[in-house]
Structures are given as C-alpha cells and as structure tokens.
Structure prediction request, 196 residues.
Amino acid sequence: MTRHRIAFLNGSLRKDSFHGRLGLAIIAASNDRLAFITPSLDLPLYDPDLDGSDTPAWTAFRDSVRLVDGILFGSPEYNRSMTGALKNALDVGSRPYGQSIFTKKPAAVFSGSPGMTGGFGSNHHLRQSCVFLDMPVMQQPEAYWGLLDDEKLAADGTVNDEMLAKLVTGFAGALADWYDLIREGSGQLAGDPTQR
Ligand SMILES: Cc1cc2nc3c(=O)[nH]c(=O)nc-3n(C[C@H](O)[C@H](O)[C@H](O)COP(=O)(O)O)c2cc1C
Prediction:
C-alpha cells in the first residue's frame, strides 16, 4: 500500500478552524493511506517587486510544497470566495513566473461552513484558479459540508454526526484512491516530485 505525502493547505488562520478539524478527521479516516504536512499560510502578501529577493517565509512555503505528492485544500468561505490567506498562498506559490510549485500537482478541495451552503462559492473559485495553475483536481465526491458546529465536529477532529462522518470517510477513501490512480496510472504526473 502506498502512503501518499500530501500538503494540507488550510485557508483558515484561525486556531479553532473547522477546516483544521476536518483535516484531522480526513487523516483519521484514511487508514494510513495519507500523510499530511501542514505548511503555514500565514505568509507576507505577495508582491512581484520582491520576486528576486529572499523572503524566507515564501521560500519555506514553496520548498515544502514542491516535494509533496499532492495537495489537499481546505477552503473556508469568506464573502462567497476563498480566504485572502489561501489566495495569497496561490499567488506566492505560482511565482516567480515559470517556476510555479503548483504545475501538474494533483489536488483535491473540500469546504465547510456553519452556514447552509458549505462553502460552495469558495470551493469553486478555488477550482477556477486550479485550472489556470494547471493542477488536476479530483472531481468527485464534491465536499461542501454545511451546518458545522462544535457538537458535530470536536476540536480534536472527532466527528460526532453520522452523516458528516459518512461524508468524511467517503471523501478520505476517494482521495487516497485518486492519488493511487495518478501515481500508478499516469507516471508522468506523479514520478519523482523533485524532478517537477
Ligand atoms: C470575513 C468573513 C466572511 C465570511 N463569509 C462567509 C460566506 O460568504 N459564506 C459562509 O458560509 N460563511 C462565511 N463566513 C463564516 C465562515 O464560514 C466561518 O467563520 C468558518 O468557521 C470559517 O472556517 P474555519 O472555521 O475553518 O476558520 C465568513 C467569516 C468571515 C470571518
């Protein structure tokens, strides 16, 4: 069994983030088929004038993501779009021009919200950016997990809601299958991450 090394990029900077909890729940449900690294998205704002200079937080972020097999985005919804932190991380990782860390990196997206719509707007704005960034994105199952609260989803990632647990388990299994498929079925997408 292959254990895929995934960068979990959580668009929330919040300590008690539901998306952070959902990341823990996905790992727990993955039966050891996934391992996460969690690079910080608390990055200085991207500024093209600084492309040639040393901005240590940008370099650390780019270097950590460059080495993984794939990316899992946890994408909270702010004003019907992705958070500024996540958009900034996309901008930082996509530059300098021609050196994007995202090109051909297999990705998946989940979003959640205490509201009804489960971060649908955020999820799809992010998918739009993934098209331009040339990232293959898992299409199904879609994950818009609405009506989240502390009872359904504890701080340690324990899911206390039958429906949410089923959705998270299904998503985690599909995610591991997706990375299996890419690695085994299409070597040119997977291969050695250091050679991308
Ligand atoms: C600035 C701001 C804008 C928000 N806009 C939306 C929104 O458009 N849709 C929505 O469902 N929730 C919205 N929310 C609520 C977030 O979904 C909620 O704070 C959620 O818990 C964020 O994810 P996190 O728990 O991982 O930080 C907004 C919250 C903030 C702080």
Q: What stands out?
A: Residues 187-196 have pLDDT under 50 and may be disordered. Strands lie at 4-10, 34-37, 70-74, 107-112, 144-145. The chain is about 35% helix and 10% strand. The chain has one domain: 4-195.
